[in-house]
Design a protein that fits this description.
690 residues, Immunoglobulin-like, 3 domains, 6-stranded mixed beta sheet, 19 helices
């Protein structure tokens, strides 16, 4: 059946080619292969994946809704259609609205002429397969489909598809083409009273266009160059922080290039004039850490890093494994975390936008909450803790979830599941697109951001729409404080305190290393981890615990902001552990037991709360059972209630006192553990029963 269908298709196509022998090609490239050609096989035929039908539900397949809108300047068709050539646009206004909206036609007087017509400005009225896969050598050489004799889509190395420049062709809004394009011009005709049904003229005639997208970029290269990508910079001037735009003024007067936000006088790609916030991802991404994830890894690990590192540092490694192909070695890997490391070009997926559920970010996971921690985790099993002496690597998930540190009670963060809300707040006036620099926009930074353009008299001053603390959902916004500026001091104080605490821990670890007989912290850690855990002394164990705990906080990188309560507990514990690292076995010390009561005077039968904590002599949390004791007057102490200490060394006992009237005394007893901690009791507390 497959062969019969194929033969029929080839015969019909061949007939069309013969019937229209004088086709002039559409768009820029004669080797652009239409999606119809790809659909023939990529619809589940002969075991080939059904990519076409999954793609057909995505925004790329449905991008043509604005392709007919081809105003001079931004030229929507360049990114909302495929293989677009603005020089082929015949600027005959077809709109009849008095709003000035103008649609431009292709050469055959239809809004977007199909490729078969031969002289249209575009080949397809959507983002087709060959916009990203370049072209294919269609069986039989069917010109109606477009033929790439290099068969680039099938022959180029699979790794090339991880190249972010493929997406950057269009997702670099307000960058501009390196070469202006000559286009036709329609003179302006003033229309004081629009006539219903009359065409709307072009109010800004021009003979040049400097498109704000790439034109003719051969993103997968050619066989003669070893399939090396040509480089987006050859056709597109991509914006970058502090750039000075130098386009041709005659081509861009009506277009309006990107207007940046300025921070400390430096232009940054946080646009004031945007494209619904969803077309500037490439320049954002290019200046942040994901883009350099592989280069940074090789700088630390050498030119051939191991596969376990490539699982999070190399998109071409990740996609090769998923596709069942032989993955590249560390030396062969080419790309850091690029667009397809997080997004699925051929599948809408189930994830919806953080600020608009109508928006589909096409993520590799079912939600934003799952995506970031796929890599940003230390691979510690849930509710476990790290091993003493281990070097912890970016434990963002563990910090947010509040587990993993040694001898520190678990405590989840209020920020759990909010990576996107804090790291990707919209930086345009439209909330649909996230900030792909992934930088925290502190309240003070947002409030001081300005646009480097003159504002017309009487117009409001443009301002950054959100900070990371306010965000599109207004998480911490207060009346008259749109950026949650009141939190700036809190952010700075907590991070400064944590940095100081970390520095103090390292100083203490250096001192402890000398006490243990080593030159410094690094030398002690190297030597002590080589000792079997069962053979380590009390001091050696505490040294390694402190080393891992302080590394946990440093490597996580937020210095208190992701989970203040847990981070604070970690560094306090680590400092105690470092101080307890002694060369000789320490002398036994008594437990430190506290007790407080909720009421000192009650009526008979009322409830009283007995609360407190147990620490050992080095400041570590106690483990085991406490006993609450009572007596009245000259009576002897009697054991009354027992309770096992919580993981943070606390206890909480609630009881109704149906005791005789008078003054009752209470205390808590903690038995010795047979080791370094001796038995101890708390101070007495009294409750008067009336």
């Amino acid at each position: 059946m497959f062969k019969r269908v194929t033969i029929v298709a080839l015969v019909v196509a061949a007939f069309l080619v013969l019937a229209v022998p004088a086709l002039a090609w559409n768009g820029l490239r004669e080797d652009y292969t239409t999606t119809a050609a790809c659909q023939t096989c990529h619809s589940g035929t002969a075991g080939i994946a059904n990519v076409y039908h999954r793609w057909s539900e995505t925004g790329h397949a449905n991008a043509g809704g604005r392709a007919n809108r081809l105003p001079y300047g931004s030229s929507c068709g360049g990114c909302h259609s495929s293989n677009f050539d603005p020089s082929k646009i015949v600027p005959t206004p077809t709109a009849t609205s008095s709003t000035g909206a103008v649609s431009w036609t292709g050469g055959n007087a239809t809004p977007i002429a199909p490729q078969a017509e031969g002289d249209a400005a575009t080949s397809e009225s959507f983002v087709g397969c060959s916009s990203c896969h370049y072209g294919a050598n269609v069986a039989g050489g069917l010109a109606i489909y477009g033929v790439d004799s290099n068969d680039t889509a099938h022959m180029a190395p699979y790794a090339n598809l991880s190249n972010a420049e493929i997406c950057g062709q269009c997702h670099s809004r307000y960058s501009y083409a390196t070469t202006p394009v000559p286009v036709a011009s329609v003179p302006y005709m003033a229309v004081t009273t629009p006539t219903p049904g009359a065409p709307i003229p072009n109010p800004s005639p021009t003979s040049l266009l400097q498109p704000q997208y790439a034109m003719g970029y051969q993103m997968l290269g050619e066989p003669g160059t070893g399939w090396v990508p040509a480089g987006l910079s050859t056709v597109l001037q991509v914006q970058y922080p502090g750039w000075t735009p130098m386009p041709d003024p005659a081509a861009t007067t009506a277009a309006g290039l990107q207007i940046y936000w300025q921070i400390d006088g430096v232009d940054l790609p946080w646009q004031y004039r945007g494209h619904d916030g969803s077309a500037n991802q490439y320049p954002d991404w290019k200046i942040e850490g994901h883009a350099g994830a592989l280069d940074g890894l090789k700088a630390v690990m050498g030119p051939n890093p191991p596969a376990r590192c490539l699982e999070c540092h190399s998109t071409d490694y990740i996609t090769a494994v998923e596709a069942g192909k032989t993955p590249p070695t560390g030396a062969e890997a080419q790309y850091g975390i690029t667009c397809v490391g997080c997004h699925t070009p051929h599948d809408n997926g189930t994830a919806v936008g953080e600020w608009s559920e109508e928006f589909h970010p096409q993520l590799r996971t079912d939600s934003q909450k799952e995506l970031c921690v796929t890599c940003h985790n230390a691979e510690l099993p849930v509710n476990t803790q790290a091993s003493p002496g281990a070097a912890i690597h970016h434990p963002m998930k563990e910090m947010i979830d509040g587990y993993g540190a040694i001898d520190v009670a678990a405590f989840p963060s209020v920020h759990k599941g909010k990576c996107v809300q804090c790291h990707m707040p919209p930086t345009t006036t439209s909330p649909t697109g996230g900030n792909h620099t992934f930088q925290i926009i502190e309240p003070e930074v947002a409030s001081e951001a300005r646009v480097p353009v003159a504002v017309p008299s009487g117009s409001p001053t443009p301002r950054m729409p959100y900070s990371s603390c306010s965000g599109a959902k207004g998480c911490h916004t207060r009346p008259n404080e749109p950026y949650a500026l009141y939190l700036q001091d809190t952010i700075e104080q907590r991070q400064e305190w944590t940095h100081a605490r970390v520095a103090a821990i390292h100083d203490e670890l250096d001192a402890a290393a000398v006490r243990l007989g080593y030159a410094d912290e690094a030398a002690a850690q190297t030597a002590l981890v080589a000792i079997p855990e069962a053979d380590r002394t009390f001091g050696q164990t505490n040294f390694l615990k402190a080393y891992t705990n302080v590394g946990f906080v440093e490597s996580e990188g937020s210095f208190g902001l992701h989970n203040w309560d847990y981070s604070r507990a970690i560094v306090n514990t680590a400092l105690n552990q470092a101080k307890a690292a002694e060369a000789n076995p320490p002398a036994p010390r008594k437990w430190v037991v506290s007790l407080r009561v909720s009421r000192s005077t009650i009526k008979k039968g009322q409830k009283v709360f007995f609360r407190g904590a147990v620490l050992d002599g080095w400041g570590f949390t106690g483990k085991g059972k406490i006993t609450l004791q009572r007596r009245m007057g000259g009576q002897s102490w009697r054991n009354w209630k027992t309770q096992t200490l919580a993981s943070n060394g606390t206890y909480d006992i609630q009881q109704r006192l149906n005791f005789a009237k008078g003054k009752w005394y209470f205390r808590v007893s903690m038995p010795g553990d047979g080791g370094l901690n001796l038995a101890a009791v708390s101070p007495n507390r009294t409750v008067k029963v009336k």
